Give the backbone structure.
Amino acid sequence: MLELCILLLFSVSLIICVILDYSILYALIFGYALFFTFGLIKGKTWKDMLCYSFRGILTVKNILIIFILIGSITAIWRACGTIAFIVYYASMFAVPQAMVLICFLLCCFVSFLMGTAFGSAATIGVICMTLANSMNIPVIYAGGAVISGIFFGDRCSPMSSGAHLISGLTYTDVFNNIKTMVKTAFIPFIVTVVLYGSIGLIINPGTGNGMTFHIFADSYNLSLFTIIPAGIIILFSLLKIDVKITMTVSCLAGLFCAGLFQHIHAAELIKIVFFGFHPQDAELAKLMTGGGIVSMIRVSIIICISSCYSGMFKGTHFFAGIQRFMERLSKRITAFGSVLTASVFASAIACNQTLAIILTHQVCDDLIEDKNTLASYLENTAVVVAPLMPWSIAVSVPLTSIGAPSVVLVAAFFLYLIPLWNFFVNIVRHRTRK
C-alpha cells in the first residue's frame, strides 16, 4: 500500500509539472526524495540509499559520454550542411500525392542519422509540415507521418540515447539490438508505408510551390562532400565499429566540412560544438538552430536522476509486488505482453521516455533470462509507447516543434503497429508451443 501511495504522489507531481509547463526536473527531484524516504522507512540507512543511487548512475556512465557526442554531432551537422543537403535534394522528389509518405520516410532517414526525435522534429519535421501545409494536406495525416518517422531512429539508430540506455540497462550490444530492431519492425514498417502511400492517393492534395527549401541553397554550399559525416555513421555502423569512435570521427569530418565548405572559423566551430548552431538568418534559424553539448545537460540530469531511481528500486525491492503480478500475467499473455502492459503504465505515470524505459526494465527484468530478448522487448514497447501519451514530454515537445495538435497521434501508425505486431507474433508462438 505504501508503494502505491508513493507512486501516486510521484505521478501527481509529474502531471502538475506537465499541466503548469514546469520543468519535469522538479517532479523528478521530488520523486527522488519520496523514494529515498521509502528506503529509510524500510530500514535502510541514508548511506545505503546514496550507495544505491550511485550504483544506478554507474549503469549509465557510458550513455552520458555518448550524450556529449550527440550534442556535438547534431550541432556540427547543422553547421556543415549535412542535414541541409539531404533535405534540399530529397525535397525535389516531393510530389503532393506522395507527400504523406515522403514525410514519414524523410523523418525516418533523418532520425536514423541524428538518433533523436526532438532534433528530427525541430529540423526535418518542421520542414515536412511546412511543405505539407503548402500542399493543403490535412494536418492529421502529415503530423502522424512525422511523429511516426521521428521515433523510427529512437529504436534503431546507433546515435539514439534510448537505444544506448537500453543497451546499458540490459548489458547488451547496441549493434545486435539494432539488427533485431530491423527484423521486428519490418512488417510494421511495410504496412505503415502502404497506409501513408494510400492516404496520399485518396486525399488528392493540391500543389505546393516548394519555396521552403530554397533557403538551404542560398545559405549553404551544398557540396556532395557535406554528406560525408552521415556516410561515416552508416559505414561505421555496418562495420560494427564502437559507436563512440563512430560519432567522434563523424564530428571531426563535420568540422572539416564546416570549415572548408561553409567557411566557418575555428573559434566559431568550438562555440557551435558547445552551445549549438545559431545561424544569423532568421528564417534559417527557425529550421536549423539547435544541438551543442549544453543542450544535452538537461536530458543528462534527467537520465542521472532516473538511474538513481533504478538503483534505489532494486536495493529496496520497491517493485517486488508488481514483479510477482507481472510474472503471473506473463503466463497468460506471454512475457512480451507483460512488458507491453508495464510499459503502458510506466509511460502514463513517467511523462517522459527515459523514465518509462527504466521503470519498465525494473519491473520486467526478472521475467526474461535472455537479456537480448529483454532489450528487444523494451525497444518494441516503452520506446514507442511513451510518445503515444499526449501528456508526455516525449511527444508534447515534438508536437510543439512541428505545430501540430495531439490528435495527429491517431495517425501515428508506426508507433501502434510495432507493439501490436510483436504482441501478435508472441501470442502465436506461445499458442503454437502449447
